[in-house]
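Q: What does the assembled structure look like for these inputs?
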Amino acid sequence: MIEVLLFAQLQEEAGKDKILLDIKEITVKEIKEKLQSQFHLSQVKESMVAVNEEYALDGDIIQTGDTVAIIPPVSGG
Amino acid sequence: MIEVLLFAQLQEEAGKDKILLDIKEITVKEIKEKLQSQFHLSQVKESMVAVNEEYALDGDIIQTGDTVAIIPPVSGG
Amino acid sequence: MRDKLFEVVEDPISVDSLIKKVEDRNAGAITTFIGTVREITGKKKTIYLEYQAYKPMAEKMLAQIGKEINERWPDTKVAITHRIGSLDISAIAVVIAVSSPHRKPAYQANEYAIERIKQIVPIWKKEQWEDGEAWIGDQKENVPYPTGKPEIKDEDND
Amino acid sequence: MRDKLFEVVEDPISVDSLIKKVEDRNAGAITTFIGTVREITGKKKTIYLEYQAYKPMAEKMLAQIGKEINERWPDTKVAITHRIGSLDISAIAVVIAVSSPHRKPAYQANEYAIERIKQIVPIWKKEQWEDGEAWIGDQKENVPYPTGKPEIKDEDND
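A:
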């Protein structure tokens, strides 16, 4: 199981703050595509992905048990 | 009478915080020379002069009733 | 208990408590940056802001900014607290405190911190106007992450 | 009674009270600079500092710095308090608070203020070391007043 955390606009679009995916292994690029096509999250494209609280690159591999977060452009401060 | 205020090292050198000069009119340049020669204040040369709380130039004229301050290089902050 | 130097909180921030965290016998300068909720931006009138964070990661990223600062400007001490939740006009959203033996690094490191917060710390704000609301990103001003991910080092920053 | 924005005082300075003086509904950023007494400078160990001011003129000059800032960076608010007398290690000698709608001017104006204080405000410090004392001027670093008097405008400042 991979837990995907959603924030800000993505959270509102999805109507929930997390999605559970029953997947053993997937790349960052693939999970972004999956979230766009299956969950219609418009902002995924311009978002970063964090795996276990670290920014990840498209080629990085996500495994079952990992916590993924979709990070749209930040606006703190 | 012209009141001359002394601060910091000048005050310690003179042993007092003001000097009264019985003068009607004098330029800034002249008063600096006078303080050096008569009162042996070594730091006057590198000091600025303020007349009535405004910085003054060598040619400016000081008149009886004015308050003069000798301002050695400042070191606040 | 040791004070946390890098925190995301839900209650009002005390500027004084951040100053205390960076005090040092060899500090000659402490700078603070206080980010407050501004009423007017362009022609829009803000009623309040709503901040959300990915809290554990946000605190990690704030700590990383502190580490970057200590590497670039030795002998500095840094503390950063960001508040989340609903914030009224003039409320304090973020406080950055930096101490240093000399003033120049205290200013530079402080400004570096706020720039980095706006790049890598997962915190978002939603503006509530009289006639609507929107989550704010800096999409209008910047390509979100030109190098594919937020720069962990940004040598050109000033 | 209106708060004094530019002050020379003999008692401890409250950073919070200066922040309050510059708060504004349209401020998005407040910067503070806190000048503290540092123990070690080079190889010298300071025991305490003694500050002296030509008080009425010093307050006038602080107000003038505020005016210069408002001209250069519109929409800023500035407050400065300098303490005099005997100050122990870590004590606060000066606090500068600047508010602005945006952060960049808040940093720039604040740094401008401390540079100008060191140029034109008639305040002097005497360092007390373990083995002596001396009034400090910036003679070692600068020609005191290259143009004959302290520059009232300094267009090259950054």
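Chains B and A do not touch (no CB pair under 8 Å).
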